[in-house]
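Human: You know discrete backbone vocabularies at least as well as I do. Show me how you would write down a chain together with its backbone fold. No explanation is needed for now; the record alone will do.

Assistant:
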Amino acid sequence: MKIAYFVPGPLSRGPLGPDELVRREAFLNQHAFEGTDVEVRETASGPASVESAVEEYLSVPGLIEATPRLEAEGFDAIIVGCFGDPGLAAARELVDIPVIGPGQAAGHVAAQLGLRFAVLTVVDEVVPSIWRQMRQHGLDGFIADVRAVDVPVLELRERAEEVLETLEAEALQSLARGADAFVLGCMTMGFVDVARTLEARIGLPVVNPVLASLKSAETLAALGHSSSRGAYPTPRKKAAATRVHSATAG
């Protein structure tokens, strides 16, 4: 099984550099089932990180261009490498393989672990977007709180211990709002791999969106399922041209 983890922005051109793509690929393959091969790809356009609705929208064109190409290369599933699930519906319209949104996957996992969950994310600017995102995914009845640690995405690794301390403090605040499970609301936060440590500290489930999306991708690909054409119909206009262009590009 081949799975593509697609970063919808030029992450390697940012301060983390190309080594970050290698590190993420190693992390994903370390946690993949035997027989699964995960490749990390990125687009040359768009923001290096997504911390606002504006950046979320700017990250969509690269994903739309790449999705049919990844299917043509033989991948069995695609993970959108951003917790906000940018371009998820559009990508699902273009291919006949599963396209996984980490926010959706992690939220549904958390909804099975408790009565109400909280999302712990990076900066205040993305909090409204996450509330809207969870509502769109039908999870508004399960979400109790969304809180931010006030650390930009590209600073998470170098400030990991500080982030962990703040995550614990914010999680305790969310308990008072009825949360009994938690989701890390950022893929970089997931790759920093603090979920298990935080879970041990607070004694409640903490879902890593990286692993939730990976296991969702593996499961749907193994089951042979893809997105319903009733929910994600193939675009009538330019669909064929988009597929041909993407399949032959590069």
User: Anything to note?
Assistant: Residues 243-250 have pLDDT under 50 and may be disordered.
